[in-house]
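User: Quick sanity check before I run a bigger batch. Here is a single chain. Can you write out its predicted 3D structure?
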Amino acid sequence: MKPVILLLTLLFTSVPLFISDLTKDKLIVFSSLSNYGTDFDGDKIFDLAVWNPQTNTLYFQLTSDNKFYEKKFFDTRINYQPVFADYDGDKKTDFAFFHPDSGQWIINLSSSPGHQKKEFLGSIGDFPIPTNIDGDTKYEASVWRPSAGAWLVTYKDENTGEQRKFISYGVYQDSSFSADYDGDGKTDLGAWRPDDGFWHIVKSGTGFDFNQSEHIQHGKEWDTIVPNDYDGDGRCDLVLWRKSNQTWYFKYAKDGSQNEIKFGGVNDIPSSGDTDGDGIPELITWDPNDKKWNILNFKKQETLTYKWNVPGGCLPAISILQKIE
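Assistant: Done. Predicted structure follows.
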């Protein structure tokens, strides 16, 4: 079967369509872009966070003070979707949101408390995926447009300032992502195609030349992609989680070597993040039914579980969710 993208992403889609379907075996996640992280306090440690799309409320715990926070961002039933990343280069994750109907981005810059950066980029059906293709440590607003099989990316030009351009790459059913695959400090554009299990990566260092892109088979239909730098070498590794056997499948960017680890429950949503500050992401899953986090530090061979008292319908604040019909 082919995935039908119904704009059901936690970060990037129209939430009301999936709220009533958030029950066992009805929500299927195709991609979890946790490589942006959620380090709201700048201590280089991943802060656990869930988003309640019904109330536009974020629940999160800062590692710097170990306190639990509840923050409502919009007093409206209009759907705003989190697109958290570091947009000002201060090493803190900014609270940023995308309005899918209008294409408006609202970015609360942590370096300028009380100041919001607002811009319009995208339209109905687009997936907002922040990029940093110029390597200046600041993420920019960008979108993946499945209907056109193309990206609309923002970048900084030394002479003309902020610019935008279309990059044709991918097809409608792709699970797209942006991450630094080759370690040059600039994000590359990638897509995982469920039909054949191929990852397609076009690199910023080649000027996004399709003829110099990489095509790597890894995974199969129904897998969830969870790309991140799992070995700390500065390159994003190609990783999937398989719901059917709760197993993570790794393919490392540096040498193509592979590994697999069984972790998580059948109803979990996978993600990843550095929860101990050693520079290596841990494997993380969120159980939406029991409202609990499961964390595996595979270097220490240590598993931790945290149960949260949050409303039903909360989902990890970093996952792109896609539903199959």
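Residues 50 and 315 are 5 Å apart (CA to CA).

User: Great, the batch can go ahead then.
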